């Protein structure tokens, strides 16, 4: 499946998400190619007269939002986010996610949990029976002592941990941290793993999004499928 084909499924999911957007809302705006489709589609709503404000999860998204006519709230404001919309790298049957393929996981998680409703958009290839295996878990760590932090992650997960690089240098997040990608064969209990990882000093945030997604919108060859999470 080529990226071009998949982008059509991402776009159809993004267009469906427009149904959740109402005039005057504050939106949490995710990062990545699927979120980009959504933000560009919002531009048509704004052009038609809808007033939207947003919180951006990356500089790239801020630029797109600006082009779409969405007024961005300041980083230091309190954000009354109605709906956050973002892509994901993997989604399991309980709607737990791996995110952070683009390195924006920290801001994305802050925005997702701040929203009254979090909508996840994916193409159908990202639904998996369990997290891991086909996508390494991104973990944001501070650079101070990162090798020791990586060792601790390896010891906990019994997996290979690889420092993410970009153009031959360590990749830096917008918060100035590093990302280590953790190649796990299978994540059996994402909630337990996330909790255990958060006990390791040096870890800023993980790409595990547990119990965050309220709505999952999936672009498939047969059309768009929408699922609503049920919480206990
Ligand atoms: O850090 C990046 C984000 O978590 C993205 O939302 C995720 O990687 C999915 O990206 P895309 O929509 O480009 O597949």
UniProtKB/TrEMBL annotation:
Pathway the protein takes part in: Carbohydrate degradation; pentose phosphate pathway; D-ribose 5-phosphate from D-ribulose 5-phosphate (non-oxidative stage): step 1/1
Record: active site: 108
Pfam families the UniProt entry points to: Rib_5-P_isom_A
SUPFAM superfamilies: D-ribose-5-phosphate isomerase (RpiA), lid domain, NagB/RpiA/CoA transferase-like
InterPro entries registered for this protein in UniProt: NagB/RpiA_transferase-like, Ribose5P_isomerase_typA_subgr, Ribose5P_isomerase_type_A
GO molecular function: ribose-5-phosphate isomerase activity
Domain of life: Bacteria
Keyword Isomerase: yes
Enzyme class: isomerase
GO cellular component, as recorded: cytosol
Catalytic reaction list: aldehydo-D-ribose 5-phosphate = D-ribulose 5-phosphate
Protein residues bound to substrate: 31-34, 86-89, 99-102, 126
Enzyme Commission number(s) of this protein: 5.3.1.6
Keywords, in A-Z order: Isomerase
Subunit relationships: Homodimer.
HAMAP family for this protein: Rib_5P_isom_A
Protein task: Catalyzes the reversible conversion of ribose-5-phosphate to ribulose 5-phosphate.
Family the UniProt entry places it in: Belongs to the ribose 5-phosphate isomerase family.
Name the record gives this protein: Ribose-5-phosphate isomerase A
Organism: Nitrospira japonica
């Amino acid at each position: 499946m080529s990226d071009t084909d998949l982008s059509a499924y991402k776009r159809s999911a993004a267009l469906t998400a427009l149904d959740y957007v109402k005039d005057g809302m504050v939106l949490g705006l995710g990062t990545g190619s699927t979120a980009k489709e959504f933000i560009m589609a919002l531009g048509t709503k704004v052009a038609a007269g809808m007033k939207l404000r947003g919180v951006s999860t990356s500089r790239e998204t801020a630029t797109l939002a600006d082009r779409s006519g969405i007024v961005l709230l300041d980083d230091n404001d309190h954000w009354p986010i109605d709906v956050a919309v973002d892509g994901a790298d993997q989604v399991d049957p309980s709607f737990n996610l791996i995110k952070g393929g683009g390195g924006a996981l920290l801001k994305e998680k802050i925005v997702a949990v701040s929203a009254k409703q979090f909508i996840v958009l994916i193409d159908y290839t990202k639904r998996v029976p369990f997290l891991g295996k086909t996508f390494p878990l991104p973990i944001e760590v501070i650079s101070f002592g990162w090798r020791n932090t990586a060792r601790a992650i390896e010891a906990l997960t019994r997996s290979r941990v690889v420092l993410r690089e970009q153009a031959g240098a360590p990749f830096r997040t917008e918060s100035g941290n590093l990302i280590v990608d953790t190649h796990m064969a299978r994540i059996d209990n994402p909630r337990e793993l996330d909790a255990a990882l958060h006990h390791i000093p040096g870890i800023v945030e993980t790409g595990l999004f547990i119990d965050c997604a309220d709505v999952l919108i999936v672009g498939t060859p047969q059309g768009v499928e929408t699922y609503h999470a049920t919480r206990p």
